[in-house]
Specification:
This protein is of the alpha+beta class and 160 residues long. The protein is 36% helix and 32% strand. A 5-stranded antiparallel sheet has the order 1-2-3-4-5.
Length: 160
């Protein structure tokens, strides 16, 4: 039976005893990229929450999604339940009690998916949809009744 007395072959894990030990300092080339990656991921999550999260929590988005989820023509094509995805495009602009929104997002159902395009207008603090369209995978597009009346000034007529 041979005993290894060579100090170079001692297990480094056994020698590493504290947070600022020599093995941590020797592995800084690995530690720095890992920390940078974590910082980038955290920053990306914050940007996502600020940009996409604010769009998904906007009233025009919720109004459009609710109407799409309850429309019989959309339910017939996509099935039930109809869910949204994490991707939202477009913008929501408000100034005082007025505003405009142009949003695009995807919806999924058991029988397929569709792309929703909506436009909304805010007048006197109240949002109303002016355009609501769903385009399906096969290219068929349907326009949903927005319940907004004739002109853009009548947009707030929609009521949940």
């Amino acid at each position: 039976m041979e005993v290894n007395t060579d100090v170079k072959n001692v297990d480094q894990d056994a020698a590493c005893g504290g947070p600022m030990c020599g093995c941590c300092l020797r592995n800084w080339k690995v530690l720095v990229p890992v920390v940078l990656l974590l910082v980038i991921l955290l920053g990306g999550m914050l940007v996502y929450q600020e940009l996409i999260g604010s769009q998904k929590s906007s009233e025009p988005y919720r109004m459009a999604l609710e109407q799409v989820q309850s429309d019989p023509k959309v339910i017939q094509r996509l099935g039930k339940p109809i869910d949204d995805t994490w991707r939202v495009g477009g913008d929501v602009f408000t100034e005082g009690d007025r505003g405009e929104a142009n949003l695009n997002f995807e919806v999924l159902g058991p029988q397929g998916k569709g792309r929703v395009r909506t436009q909304a207008r805010r007048i006197d603090g109240q949002w109303g949809l002016t355009t609501l369209e769903v385009t399906f995978d096969d290219g068929q597009r349907i326009s949903l009744e927005t319940k907004a009346g004739e002109g853009l000034e009548d947009a707030p007529a929609w009521s949940p």
